Amino acid sequence: MREVREAFRRFWPLTRGDRKWLVAIVACVVVSALAETAAILLFAELTDNALEAGSLSAFWGPAGAWLAVAVLGALVGYAGNSLATWTAERFVLRLRAGVFRHVQDLPPDFFQKHRQGDLVERLTGDVEAIEQMVVSGVVGTVSAAFSAVFYSAAALWLRWDLALVTFFLAPLFLLAARRFAGRIRTASQDERVADGAITSVVEESLGNIVLTQAYNRRRDEEKRLDREARAWMRASVRGARLSEMYEQFVEVVETLCVLTVIGLGVWEISAGRMSLGALLAFAAFVGYLYPPIRSLGQLGLTLTAATAGAERLGELLDAEPAVSDPAKPVSEWPVRGWVSVHGASFTYPGTDRESLRDVTFTAAPGELVLITGASGAGKSTLSKLLTRFYDPSAGVICLDGVPLTDVPLAFLRENVALLPQETLILHGSIRENIECGRPGASDAEIEAAARAADAHDFVAALPEGYGTRIAPGTATLSGGQLQRIAIARAMLRAAPVLVLDEPTAGLDSIAARRIVPALRRLMTGRTTIMITHDLSLAPDADRILVVDGGRLAETGTHDELMARGGVYARLASPLGRTPYRPEETLTLALRV
Length: 592
Known about the structure:
Layout: H1 2-11, H2 19-51, H3 57-103, H4 108-113, H5 116-158, H6 160-167, H7 171-207, H8 209-214, H9 218-270, H10 276-318, E1 339-346, E2 356-363, E3 368-372, H11 379-386, E4 394-399, E5 402-403, H12 409-415, E6 416-419, E7 428-429, H13 430-435, H14 443-452, H15 456-460, E8 469-470, H16 479-493, E9 497-501, H17 509-523, E10 527-531, E11 543-548, E12 551-556, H18 558-564, H19 567-572, H20 582-591
Parallel strand pairs: 3-10, 3-11, 6-9, 9-10
Antiparallel strand pairs: 1-2, 1-4, 4-5, 7-8, 11-12
């Protein structure tokens, strides 16, 4: 039970705001148990004084009291159960929000190591399993304990000697639960892992449906799903068999106990030492006593199974964010846009190879610094450092001379806008997708940003205009149109520093040329650091940095680097291709 105690110790603090309601629920449980105890005693009185004697006058008093007790028990039971459900859902809401908040702070490499479907399962099924442990488990344990105490006390009051005989069999329930606990926990853990795998397969397959259809992978995907589903089925059936085995064993033990009571009661009645009403009441108390004891055993199994979810969620919560807000952040200031990188090196967690080594450069307000190089050279790593998804393992990066590690994250990302390599689109309207660049922006501001990004005309032509619903991978708009919506989002943010990571990636040459004017408008007046293979904007750059093998290999303007004939010249004029002519690209862009 060590795992249960550790999980309980970790998640119990989340009930702090609801403990007064838990006390109220326990009070309702106590009153309900007392009402049931009183009802059984009134039944015994009715049996002895009204039924056996055939006296109608002896019926009305106990009957009225019994009805009043039943109504009180029903009202209190309804209030307690409703309050318990409300409290449990509040706990789930609070826990899920806390875990989700933590997950959003984790670095990109964490999500590359974990399947998205498995993370979804942890935020849903595993969260609910913990609620079963911390809230429902506590309420159930207290309810069962009070019920067992009241029924035991009543049975002892009626006939202490018979009660002791029946109590002797009660520990069998707890022993059985302890016997089954370990095996059920293992089966539950396997089932939760398999649940996450199924969710992952379905999500990945639906997200890559074009690949599945284009490469005739339908049968392969079906086999993947079948493999994970069979693993889930084996774990689920194993868990169900163990639970059912426990249930049936307990049923036999309970029947044995009741028969023992009835047999002893018949012997006592035949000797004249017990009335029929007392025997029926005693049997009822024993019958009511064993279900709470049985529930305590079952709760032990539930808590054991819930530790599987607690371990998986704990693994998520134990993952450390790569960056955090400084303990003593600097005060906010009007950012000018000076970016400086001094001797920055970086190695991704879990790897030995440095992605960047001793990189140094500056970008002044209004400058365009273009960073290029071969794939895997470390260019995109720079974008993650500049927006502080990670901190450099050596060196320092500054904004207006202030180290980024001293700047509050929210303030930094308000002033350093990222246009990532992937065109990120939310499920929602075009208006909502642009507005997330600056929540609360007016329709006029959103439209102005769309016009600047060369997106207004095609958006206005849609039947629902800015209210058109779009989603990742939508067929409603082309890749170039979606990228212009992303540019409009960055326009609306109006940050003084702009980081563009492969802004034309995945676009054909016509679409790429079409967004060049929008990119130029986006970069106007901003410090822009563009990371790209596409050198169509290279002649406009104030400075070009060539990264090779994680190091800064060359620095200069387009003309200077072309004249040198080094790495940049090879990238700009690869063997077998017509040498790069910027005037042609600019002419085409202007025509579009």
